[in-house]
Structure formats: C-alpha cells, structure tokens
Write a structure and sequence with these properties.
The protein is of the alpha+beta class and 91 residues long. It has one helix and three strands. Helix content is 14%, strand content 32%. The longest helix has 13 residues.
C-alpha cells in the first residue's frame, strides 16, 4: 500500500472542526486478502445535518464514526473500509 498522508494540513487531528462539511475519502478492502475492492470514493459529510455525525468535535471523531458505521454494520463484513483522507469542503 502506498504511503498515505492522513489529514494533511490539519495539525492535531483531535482539535476542533473548522467547517460544517467534510469530504471523506475511503477505500474498501477484502478482509481475507487485503486487496482493494473497486475504487476509492469521496463522500460528503455534513456534521450539522447528518444525524450520524452530529456531535463530532474533531476530524478523529468523523473518522471513527465513519469507520464504525461501515465496518460494524454486521458481524461478518464482506469488506473493510479504510479512510485515507478527510478534508473540509471548499466553498
């Protein structure tokens, strides 16, 4: 896997959020082989209006909620999701 720069430009990922809307870039992987499944995807997350992300106070909170949702929907996931980047949406 190539070297990924996670949360580039954010400094401390536990600091407060600077935006209401973030772009989460994530990739699904086969849990048995570790091989990527499909292409990475970008998903727009609004921390004020998306019920799952309300209450997030940091980039790390967004990361954890996103991974928990996709990786713990059932007890035997067909894919595991890895978040590679979270960036504020440009206005």
């Amino acid at each position: 896997m190539k070297n990924l720069k996670l949360y580039e430009g954010f400094g401390d990922i536990s600091e407060g959020l600077s935006s209401e809307v973030y772009i989460v870039t994530a990739q699904a992987f086969n849990p048995q082989t570790g091989e990527p499944e499909g292409e990475s995807r970008d998903e727009e997350i609004n921390v004020k209006t998306n019920q799952l992300f309300k209450g997030c106070k940091s980039i790390l909170d967004i990361h954890d909620k996103y991974c928990d949702f996709w990786n713990h929907m059932n007890s035997n996931p067909s894919a595991l999701v890895f978040v590679s980047k979270i960036t504020p949406k440009k206005k």
